[in-house]
Specification:
The chain is α/β, with parallel strands linked by helices. It contains twelve helices and eight strands. The radius of gyration is 17 Å and the shape is globular. The chain binds adenosine-5'-triphosphate and magnesium ion (MG). The site of adenosine-5'-triphosphate has 18 residues, from helix 1, strand 8 and helix 10.
Length: about 260
């Protein structure tokens, strides 16, 4: 484990569009980084708790305070150690069901968009924190974006992704100007595709390349039953016995993140 926090890189996996692969990508990027010897904390920021339950912490999802809900409302009065659970590949901060109330409560809280940043201040012992953001734009997502300031965007190869990314970028611009921060797009992960591509998918891959290719690397995480089977077993494809041909692409993404760690801290 690293012995200081300078080395901690925080990444939000975010796209307010639903079902684009955020949770699956967060788990598998976490698994790929762990496979490369990195210490990873997955942080479930989505009140739906799919990541939490996906990796087998159903009980934590319904646990009483102290939990992520109470910690987000009063970050200074919680020990991070009380929130963190251990998984064979990474550690987890589980979401809890009472986080469904958080959105409303954060709106009326002082510094309601900066709770997660404050909560993460004492975090140490990890190389990477990966936050799984909810499928909406609101205070919880703003918390994830401001706390991490580095972004991985899962997106489908569909026309509707253009509008979703446009809306996400407008929100990022608003946060950057209101909070004087830089939020950097680190990677696009094209999800829910498989070959042969149809016409719309081909056009969208070209659009991703034109819109981002020069500045932001694009990765393709293809649809595989083995990914679902690993998820159903509560692990990434790296923690699963079964071979999956997507491991190389995820290793490429993990290597990119490790090589660019200096820019992510
Ligand atoms: N590479 C993949 N191979 C197979 N299935 C996948 C893959 N990526 C995502 N899926 C499936 O697509 C669906 C949506 O994925 P996921 O839940 O990760 O998206 P999400 O963006 O987190 O959704 P939400 O917006 O509800 O949080 C799930 O059923 C998941 O199992
Ligand atoms: Mg999700």
């Amino acid at each position: 484990m690293p012995d200081n926090t300078d080395n901690l890189s925080k990444l939000a996996v975010s796209n307010q569009k639903g079902g684009v692969g955020k949770t699956t990508d967060a788990i598998n990027i976490g698994g790929a980084l762990n496979d490369r010897g990195q210490d990873v904390l997955l942080w479930d920021c989505d009140p739906q708790g799919y990541l939490t339950m996906g990796v087998g912490f159903d009980d934590a999802y319904t646990a009483d305070e102290p939990n992520q809900y109470s910690a987000m409302l009063s970050p200074g009065s919680h020990s991070l150690g009380d929130l963190i659970l251990s998984h064979e590949e990474f550690d987890i901060v589980p979401a809890t069901i009472d986080m469904f109330q958080l959105e409303q409560e954060l709106v009326t809280s002082m510094k309601g968009r900066e709770k997660l940043s404050t909560l993460m201040e004492g975090l140490e012992g990890y190389d990477f924190v990966i936050v799984d953001a909810p499928p909406s734009l609101g205070h919880l997502t703003d918390n994830a974006l401001l706390a991490c300031q580095n972004l991985i965007i899962p997106a489908e190869a569909e026309d509707t992704s253009i509008r979703a990314i446009d809306i996400l970028f407008k929100q990022i611009e608003t946060l950057e100007s209101n909070f004087s921060v830089d939020i950097n797009e680190e990677a696009i992960v094209v999800s829910n595709i498989d070959y042969p591509l149809d016409g719309e998918q081909k056009e969208m891959l070209q659009w991703f390349e034109q819109a981002f290719g020069e500045h932001v690397p694009i990765f393709e995480f293809r649809n595989r039953a083995a990914v679902k089977r690993a998820f159903n077993e509560g692990v990434s494809i790296f923690g699963h016995d079964e071979e999956c041909d997507q491991e190389d692409e995820l290793r490429r993404l993990a290597t990119y993140l490790i090589d660019n760690k200096g820019d992510l801290a």
